[in-house]
């Protein structure tokens, strides 16, 4: 299980996957808005989204858990 943790604080602008979705390495999972800039987060490897801990509009902090991907 791979944990996707946030590298910076911001707000969740767009959530592009849901629990149970199959993703491929490099696919954009969600986009954060950080200081008026869009910061995409990509899948580090292919797998299935096991859990999503964020929602669009959430204010998040550095190191928060965003989601988990199962290989």
Tell me what you see in this structure.
The chain is mainly beta and 71 residues long. It has a single domain (2-70), classed as OB fold (Dihydrolipoamide Acetyltransferase, E2P). 0% of the residues lie in helices and 55% in strands. It contains no helices and 8 strands. It has strands at residues 2-5, 10-15, 22-23, 28-34, 37-42, 47-52, 59-60, 65-70. The strands form 2 sheets. The chain has a 4-stranded antiparallel beta sheet with strand order 1-8-6-3, with no helix packed on it. Strands 5-4-2-7 form a 4-stranded antiparallel beta sheet, with no helix packed on it. The chain is globular. The model has no long low-confidence stretch (mean pLDDT 97).
In brief:
The protein has 71 residues and is an all-beta fold. The chain is 0% helix and 55% strand.
Major β-sheet strand ordering: 1-8-6-3
CATH level 1 name: Mainly Beta
CATH fold-type name: OB fold (Dihydrolipoamide Acetyltransferase, E2P)
What is the CA-based Rg, rounded?
11 Å
What overall form do the CA principal axes indicate? globular
Count helical runs. 0
Please write the string of helix (H) and strand (E) elements.
EEEEEEEE
Major sheet summary line: 4 strands, antiparallel
Write down the domain tally: 1
Give the rounded overall mean pLDDT.
97
Q: How would you classify the helix and strand content by structural class?
A: mainly beta
């Amino acid at each position: 299980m791979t944990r996707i943790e946030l590298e910076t604080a911001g707000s969740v602008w767009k959530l592009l996957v849901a629990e149970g979705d199959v993703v491929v390495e490099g696919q954009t999972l969600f986009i954060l808005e950080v200081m008026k800039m869009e910061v995409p987060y990509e899948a580090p490897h292919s797998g299935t989204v096991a859990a999503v801990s964020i929602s669009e509009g959430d204010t998040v902090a550095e190191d928060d858990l965003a989601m988990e991907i199962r290989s």
